[in-house]
Write a structure and sequence with these properties.
The protein has about 240 residues and is α/β, with parallel strands linked by helices. It has helices at about 1-25, 35-50, 80-85, 100-110, 120-135, 160-165, 200-205, 230-245, and strands spanning about 55-60, 65-70, 90-95, 110-115, 140, 170-180, 210-215. The chain has a single domain, classed as Glycerol-3-phosphate (1)-acyltransferase (3-Layer(aba) Sandwich), CATH 3.40.1130.10. It is globular and about 55 Å long.
Length: about 240
C-alpha cells in the first residue's frame, strides 16, 4: 500500500513541477515581483500537500525585510518548506542552477548562486547579499553548509553572516524539523546526507506515513557588539533549541 501511495505522490509531484515550469516560462515575465513571490509561496505549499506533508508554523516570521533567515539543514524539502512558510531568496551552490527543472524553478524563485570553491566569488556573493538586504529583501541561508542527519546540528560557517553585519540587518533564527503526525515523534525519513542518493531520499519520504514539517521562527536579532564568529556561535545555540521545539 505504501508503494502505491508513493507512486501516486510521484505522479502528482511531476505534474506539479512541470506546471511550475510552465508558469515560470509563460506567466512570470508579466507579473510584478510581489505577485511572483506569492506564486512561489503558493506553489511550495501545494508541493508539500502533494507529498503528503502538512506545514506547521510556530513563532512569527518576519513581516518584511531586510532580514536574513538562518536555519538548520536536514532535507531536500527544506527550501520548499521555508518558501511555504515565508517567501525568501536562498543562497545556493552554483551547480544547482544547471539542474534540470529544479534549476529553472530555483532561479525563478530568486535564488542567488555562489561558487563555493572560489574565494573571489564568495566576496562577490557577500556584496550581492548585502545589496539585497539593503534593498529590503528577505534572504535565507543554511550556515551548516550541507545537510545533517537531523539528530545533531553541524557547526555554522560564520562568513555567511558578513552581509548582515555590513548591511546592519537583523537575523531571524529558524528551527526545522519533521514529525510523524500520528505520534508527534521526530521523523527522519526526509533526511538526506552522506552517500545517500536524492532519489532514495525522495522515495523514502513519499512512502512514509503522514508527516508534518515544523518551522519554528525565533526572534529577529542584530549582531550588536559581536563579530561574525561570536554571532554564529550564538545563533547555533538558538537554532539548536528551536529545532527541538
Amino acid at each position: 500500500m505504501r508503494s502505491l501511495v508513493a507512486c501516486w505522490r510521484v505522479v502528482r509531484l511531476m505534474v506539479h513541477l512541470l506546471h511550475g515550469l510552465m508558469v515560470v516560462a509563460l506567466r512570470f515575465p508579466t507579473l510584478a515581483p510581489t505577485q511572483q513571490q506569492a506564486r512561489v509561496q503558493a506553489w511550495s505549499l501545494a508541493l508539500l500537500r502533494h507529498a503528503g506533508i502538512r506545514l506547521v508554523v510556530q513563532g512569527q516570521p518576519a513581516v518584511q525585510g531586510p532580514v536574513m533567515l538562518v536555519a538548520n539543514h536536514i532535507s531536500w524539502l527544506d527550501i520548499p518548506v521555508l518558501h511555504a512558510a515565508r517567501y525568501c531568496r536562498f543562497i545556493s551552490k552554483s551547480d544547482v542552477q544547471g539542474w534540470p527543472l529544479i534549476g529553472a524553478l530555483a532561479t525563478a524563485a530568486g535564488t542567488l548562486y555562489i561558487e563555493r570553491s572560489s574565494r573571489r566569488d564568495a566576496m562577490r556573493m557577500v556584496r550581492a547579499m548585502q545589496k539585497s538586504l539593503e534593498d529590503g529583501e528577505v534572504l535565507a541561508v543554511f550556515p551548516e553548509g550541507t545537510t545533517g542527519d537531523g539528530r545533531t546540528l553541524l557547526p555554522f560557517h560564520a562568513n555567511l553572516l558578513q552581509a548582515a553585519l555590513e548591511a546592519q540587518a537583523p537575523v531571524q533564527p529558524v528551527g526545522l524539523r519533521f514529525v510523524e503526525r500520528a505520534t508527534g515523534e521526530v521523523c527522519f525519513y526526509p533526511s538526506y546526507q552522506g552517500d545517500e542518493t536524492l532519489v532514495g531520499s525522495v522515495w523514502r519520504t513519499l512512502s512514509c506515513p503522514a508527516i508534518d514539517a515544523v518551522v519554528h521562527f525565533g526572534r529577529p536579532e542584530l549582531a550588536g557588539e559581536r563579530d561574525r564568529r561570536a554571532w554564529a556561535q550564538h545563533l547555533h545555540q538558538v537554532v539548536d533549541a528551536l529545532r527541538k521545539g
